[in-house]
Amino acid sequence: MAVETKHKCNVGLTGNSAVAYAMKQINPDVVAAYPITPSTTVMEEFSSYVADGAVDTELVTVESEHSAMSACIGAAAAGARVMTATSSQGLALMWEMLYIAAGMRLPIVMACVNRALSAPLNIHCDHSDSMGARDSGWIQLYSETVQEAYDNIIQAVRIAEHEDVLLPVMVCLDGFITSHSIENLCLIDNDKVKGFVGEYKPNQPSLLDVEHPATYGAVALPDSYIEARRQQSEAMKLAKDVITDVGKAFEKVSGRSYGLMEKYRMDDAEVAMVILSSAAGTSKVAVDEMRKRGAKAGLIKPRVFRPFPYLEIGEALKNIKAVAVLDRADSYSSFGGPLFTEIRSGLYEFDKRPKIIGRVFGLGGRDYGVHDALAVFEELLRIKDTGKVDKLFDYITVRE
Amino acid sequence: MATLKELTGKKELFSGGHRLCSGCGIPPIVRLILRSTDCPVVVTTATGCLEVGTSIYPYTSWRTPWIHSAFENAAATISGVETAYRALKKRNKLPVNKDIKFVAFGGDGGTYDIGLQALSGALERGHSFLYVCYDNGAYMNTGIQRSSSTPFGANTTTSPAGDVIQGKQEFRKDLTKIVIAHNVPYAAQASPHHWKDLNNKAQKALSTNGPTFLNVISPCPLGWYTKPEESIESAKLAVDTCFWPLYEVENGILKVNYKPKEKKPVIEWIKIQGRFKHILKPENKWMIEKFQDRVDNEWERLLSLDGKQV
Q1: Residue A5, pLDDT above cutoff 70
Q2: Please, how many CA atoms are within 13 Å of residue B197, restricted to the half-sphere of its CB?
C-alpha cells in the first residue's frame, strides 16, 4: 500500500512505510532488492510507487540479496544513485558484496531493518545482522524511531555522496518494533527533500562514460592494496565531520537536529546507560523514573556506530561513576557485545573513567521493558556506591 | 558478416601486455567479441583468469569501461550496469547519448557453478546484455580444480587420476541447454578456431534486444596439458569430434552451424591432452567408450533438433 498524504506532521506511518516514503521522495535512479522479513514492506511499498509512476526509478527485482548488492554495485559504478533494503540473512548473504561496495567507494544507501540471525531461525529484532557487518566499511546510522529512520535515510544520501566520504551508508531500524509500528512523524516537503539531496554527480568517470574508460575492481597486490585501504580508512575518519555537518544542514530543512549521539539527562548524571535504537526509548522512561526516585541517571544513544565516535562518547562518559552498555548483539568474545567493547576501549583514552559493565539483551526480539532498564540502573547505583563490579559481562532479559 | 580485413582494422579494446598464459584461448575470444559491434561496450568480468590477468593495478588491459566485483555475480553486476544505463538514459543524464552494449565474461567455474543463480536471474529478468562463458573445463585460475563443466574422465587437482578413481567420474553439465530453457532470444556455442562463426554469433547477440548467451570453448594449455601452439587445433578437434558442437538457438529455432564431413572419434581430441593420459591405458578403455557414447548421443540429439523449435 503506497502512502499519500498532504499533511506534513502527525502523519502516522510504520518505520518501513516511512523509509519507502523517503525513498520515493529521493527518487533514486536504481533500486535493486530482494524480499526478506522484516524489511519486505519497504520494497513492496516502493514497488507500488514504481508501478503507479510516483517515481521513475528503475527497479531490479533480483533473485537473491547477493545479486541485489551486486546489481547495486554495478549500477552505482555506472553513475546511478542507488538504494536498497534488507534484513538479517539477507544482509548475511550480501556480506561479500558489502566489502566490495565500500572498497569501490560507491555511495549506496541501504535500509537495514534489524533482525536476528539463524540458527535458530528468528524473524524478530536484534542487531546481530548489522553488528556483524560493522567492519565491512559501511557507515552505520541507528534509528530509535520512525521519524529517525525517515530522517536518517534522507541524510544518508548526502553523507554517502559527499566528496570527502564516498562510502556506502546503512540506516538501521529495529525490525517489527520500529519497522511495523505506526508512529506519528513529520514529513518534509518533496521539494525540500529534492533540494537537500541534490543531483548526484559522480566525481569519477562512471562505467557509462565511454569516452573515459575506467577500470573498476582491479587487482591490487601487496604493492598497492594497503594504500587503497588506508584511503578508505581516512574517508571513514572524515565521515564523522560530514555526518555532523549534514545533521546541521538537515536541521535547517526539518527543524530536527542530528549529531553523532543523543545525550539524555546527562548533564549531572552519575550513572548512565548506553544503548542503541528503539530500546533507547524504553530506557529513557527508566531514566525519568530513576530521576523521580532521586538517582542521577542519564542515557547516551549513539546514532553513529561507524565511524565510531569514541572520543565524543568517552568525553560524555568520563565523569560518570558507573556505566552500563547494552548490546542487542553478542560478539561471542565472551568479553562483551560490540558496543560495549568499543566504548570500553574508547574510554582508555581518558585518565578518569567510569566503572563499566556490558549487558546483552533482547536477542531475537525478547522483550526489553522499563523494569529491565530499571534493574540495570539499580545495579549501576550499587556499583557507584561500592566501587565494585561483580559481573563485567552478562546477559539480561534471559531465563537462566 | 565482417571480413577479416574489416575486423583487424577495428579498434583494439583489449590491449596486449596482459598476463594470460601463452596459448590461452581467452584473449582471442574476447578480442573477437569486442570487435563484433560498432557501439561502445561496457564489460564486466567474473573473478577468474581473465580478470586477474588483465587488471593488476596500476595496469589495465581494458580500453573500454570495465568492472569486476566478485566471482559468482558477473550477471548480477552487469544487470545493475545495464539498469543504470536505462535509468540515466530515461533521465537524460548520460555523458554520451548513444547506444551502449553490455558484455559479461565468466569462466566455467564462475558460470556453470557459482554464478549459475545470478545468470539465471539476469536471463529471466530480460536485461539487454551478452553473457560469454569462456569454458576451459575447470577452475584453471586456482590451479585446475574440477568444475561441473570438466569432461568425464579428466584429471584435475580435485578429481585426480588415482589408483582407484580415474579422474572425474561424472559427465559435464550442459549449460547451453540450461540457458536455452530460459527462452532467451539468442544463445549459441562457439569456438575460437572458427572465428567467422564466433564473430557472426557475437554480432547477432550484440544486435539482439534482451539477454543473449555464448558458450565458447577455451583451450587451456595449463589445465589440458597441451602445447600452447596447439590450442586452436585442440579447439578445432573438440568441434570435429562433436564434443563441442557449434550451434545456435535464435528465437527458439535451433540450428547446427557446423556438421563435420567426417565426424572424428573423440579419442582424437582426448589423446592430445595430458589430462586424459590415464584413460588411454588399456584397462580404462571402458572410459573412452563411455565418453564416446555420450558424445554420440548428444550429437544425435542435436541433429534431431536441427531446424526445429526447441
Answers
A1: no
A2: 22
